[in-house]
């Protein structure tokens, strides 16, 4: 077995232990990735190979393997550098080979890595290394007398005190580069550090929003991610001064035990160097490491909160293919409206001026009634921004034909889409106001298909989203979008380029080619036809086919999540049951005759067969729940209408680690603090509420000056 294969086996074993999985599962996932498989495809169609791992486990394996791969690359780089410098001894190589973490590797490399011109380097250039070595032995002699031999005005060493200072600089660097010392202090920093935040003098006025942290301290092991990110933001804005260190006495005690061997004058020189090493070199370095670790942990927590919220938002119940009148409200500029077909096509647009008693209001009422009658409107979508509640009240007061569904729609990010290149391509002859109204209407019809058109960061369901690593945030949010799109599936004959580009195995180029092929050749008639699309080869077909649906195909399986690789197996099932495939789908009695044990093979096991049978029961089923109509409380349109103790219906709009925000229809979301979510202790708000969930809340406090509303869910049941 060659070295690369040995390393792969080692990595598989390590990841299996870290994640509590079987080695064969990790190996199978690694091989599938190596062969170009995507996470959604592996999770859905390779359950036998992975032991039925879900997407979360598969992504964890991917991340852990990458981390080990990066560690190995760094190890090889360090060894190559040391080899070129002729410093790689067998003992050092053994230590490098056995280093289990990046910090351990860097500690071993630290004494040898190229440095800038340090104080110790200057002292060595002046010939003070021998004096440092003598002092470090800590034998019983007078340091000043030994130092006299190193006085040399030509080397800018004018007296013994300067010679001793230079020797101490060399000793300080030696202590700083000691791997054992760094490892022990690193453990101390990790377990005993305290975060201290203090106001920078004279910044009280500008930093009032950080007042909770003007004189704040807590153990680093206990700090909540959102508090750390808030403090770090205050530091960046030069409002706060932050330190994250353990007690000085404890740190020096560790170093004293490691390096002080005697109680004499030479040892006291070493002790001075030791204190300097800690304060000037070790503490800043280890504090930066700990800062990075804590920040990464806090960012991961914040990113996961955003990802969870985004998933809930993308998987929100769709109204479905209904004819919609969409309204983008405004006061002086009126409400822009767009009429959409059941397929989301723009049929008509314009502006109305809703009011209750003016001539314009009367004209607006007649216009809405006429539109609803002419287009047989089944639903009215109203943006929840400025004048949203007033427009809703106006619409609900009209005598409309057929009583359409009336829904407030979260319009966060709609303006971003309206001004985007995608919107300009889709609606080149319309301005951003029309595009915005269209987006609001389509969000009601199918939130997923519309929201994927904009950068997820613009939707605003995150926590400290601007304070985290934007590359990591984007990667995580892309993973969520990909997961949601493939979980729901895509109707290939109506999907946009943006939606298609998130299908497993596809990209923007192939997605554009699919739409172009559809325009030039008409709707796809079968999944086999996908192979006619330029750049959509066998591998892309394998990955994507199961997630692309064709409703009116001659083969009913093309509308389902059954992968084409299993069509022959389903045909065998139908033949054995004495019916056609179509009959197998529509006839429950026929499906009950299926004995899945009969179809188990080397490549198809019970998990896949169970999925196939479930899919036959409901081909192409949408995993999203059914649409529920919601109505804010009449007469409560602004913060001034609220009264403490009032009970109101609301919708969860954002979830953070410290609580949940609720839209109660007053243009200012209220906060249910985590302590008010239930009558019991709650560690994670996501255990109690979900994004978009209807709730009934009680008003606890109102601060109109600061635009803050405190709410409670205690003693209430979510609806």
Summarize the entry for a quick read.
The chain is an alpha/beta fold. The chain has 29 helices and 15 strands. The longest helix is centred in the middle third of the chain and has 50 residues, at 265-314.
Could you characterize the architecture of this molecule?
There is one protein chain. The chain has 719 residues and is α/β, with parallel strands linked by helices. The chain has 5 domains: 3-109, RuvA domain 2-like (Arc Repressor Mutant, subunit A), CATH 1.10.10; 119-305, Tex N-terminal region-like (Orthogonal Bundle), CATH 1.10.3500.10; 324-445, YqgF/RNase H-like domain (Nucleotidyltransferase, domain 5, 2-Layer Sandwich); 511-617, Tex RuvX-like domain-like (DNA polymerase, domain 1, Orthogonal Bundle); 639-712, Nucleic acid-binding proteins (OB fold (Dihydrolipoamide Acetyltransferase, E2P), Beta Barrel), CATH 2.40.50.140. It is 48% helix and 12% strand. Strand 7, helix 17 (388-396) and strand 8 form a beta-alpha-beta unit. The protein is globular. The mean pLDDT is 94.
């Amino acid at each position: 077995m060659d070295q690369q294969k040995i390393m792969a086996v080692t990595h598989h074993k390590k990841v299996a232990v870290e994640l509590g999985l079987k080695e064969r599962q990790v190996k199978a996932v690694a091989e599938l990735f190596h062969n170009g498989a995507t996470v959604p495809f592996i999770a859905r169609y390779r359950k036998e190979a992975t032991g039925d791992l879900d997407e979360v486990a598969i992504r964890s394996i991917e991340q852990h393997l990458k981390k080990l791969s990066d560690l190995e690359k760094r190890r090889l780089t360090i060894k190559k550098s040391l080899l070129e410098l002729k410093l790689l001894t067998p003992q050092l190589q053994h230590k490098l080979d056995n280093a289990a973490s990046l910090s351990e590797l860097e500690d071993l490399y630290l004494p040898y890595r190229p440095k800038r011109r340090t104080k110790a380097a200057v002292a060595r250039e002046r010939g003070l290394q021998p004096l440092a070595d003598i002092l470090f032995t800590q034998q019983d002699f007078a340091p000043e007398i030994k130092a006299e031999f190193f006085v040399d005005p030509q080397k800018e060493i004018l007296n013994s005190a300067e010679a001793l200072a230079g020797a101490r600089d060399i000793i300080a660097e030696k202590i700083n580069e000691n791997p054992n010392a760094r490892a022990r202090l690193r453990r101390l920093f990790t377990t005993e550090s305290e975060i201290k935040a203090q106001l920078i003098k004279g910044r009280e006025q500008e930093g009032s929003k950080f007042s909770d942290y003007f004189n704040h301290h807590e153990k680093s092991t206990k700090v909540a991610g959102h508090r750390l990110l808030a403090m770090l933001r205050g530091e960046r804005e030069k409002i706060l001064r932050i330190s994250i260190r353990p007690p000085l006495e404890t740190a020096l005690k560790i170093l004293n035990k490691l390096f002080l061997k005697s109680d004499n004058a030479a040892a006291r020189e070493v002790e001075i160097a030791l204190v300097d090493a800690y304060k000037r070199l070790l503490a800043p370095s280890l504090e930066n490491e700990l800062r990075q670790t804590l920040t990464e942990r806090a960012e991961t927590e914040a990113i996961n909160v955003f990802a969870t919220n985004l998933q809930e938002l993308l998987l929100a119940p769709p109204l479905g293919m209904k004819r919609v009148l969409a309204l983008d409200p405004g006061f002086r500029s009126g409400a822009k409206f767009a009429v959409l077909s059941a397929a989301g096509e723009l049929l008509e647009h314009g502006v109305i001026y809703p009011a209750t008693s003016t001539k314009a209001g009367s004209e607006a009422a007649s216009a809405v009634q006429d539109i609803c009658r002419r287009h047989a409107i089944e639903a009215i979508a109203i943006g929840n921004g400025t004048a949203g509640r007033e427009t809703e009240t106006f619409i609900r007061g009209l005598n409309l034909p057929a009583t359409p569904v009336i829904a407030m729609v979260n319009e966060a990010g709609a303006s971003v889409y309206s001004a985007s290149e995608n919107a300009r391509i889709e609606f080149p002859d319309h301005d951003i106001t029309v595009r915005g109204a269209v987006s609001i209407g389509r969000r009601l019809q199918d939130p997923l298909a519309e929201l994927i058109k904009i950068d997820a960061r613009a939707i605003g369901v995150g926590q400290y989203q601007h304070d985290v690593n934007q590359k990591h945030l984007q990667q995580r949010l892309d993973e969520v979008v990909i997961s949601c799109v493939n979980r729901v599936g895509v109707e290939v004959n109506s999907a946009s380029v943006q939606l298609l580009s998130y299908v497993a195995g596809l990209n923007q180029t192939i997605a554009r080619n699919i739409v172009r092929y559809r325009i030039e050749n008409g709707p796809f008639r079968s999944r086999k036809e996908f192979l006619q699309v330029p750049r959509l080869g066998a591998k892309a077909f394998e990955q994507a086919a199961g997630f692309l649906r064709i409703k009116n195909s001659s083969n009913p399986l093309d509308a389902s999540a059954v992968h084409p690789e299993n069509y022959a197996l389903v045909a065998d099932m139908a033949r054995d049951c004495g019916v056609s495939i179509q009959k197998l789908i529509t006839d429950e009695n026929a499906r009950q005759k299926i004995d899945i044990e009969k179809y188990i093979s080397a490549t198809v096991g019970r998990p896949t067969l169970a999925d196939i049978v479930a899919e036959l029961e409901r081909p192409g089923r949408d995993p999203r729940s059914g649409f529920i109509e919601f109505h804010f409380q009449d007469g409560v349109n602004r913060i001034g209408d609220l009264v403490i103790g009032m009970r109101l219906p609301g919708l969860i709009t954002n979830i953070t680690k410290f609580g949940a925000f609720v839209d109660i229809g007053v243009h200012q979301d209220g906060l249910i603090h985590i302590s008010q979510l239930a009558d019991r202790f709650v560690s994670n708000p996501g255990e109690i509420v979900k994004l978009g969930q209807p709730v009934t809340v009680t008003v606890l406090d109102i601060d109109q000056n600061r635009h803050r509303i405190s709410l409670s869910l205690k003693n209430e049941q979510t609806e």
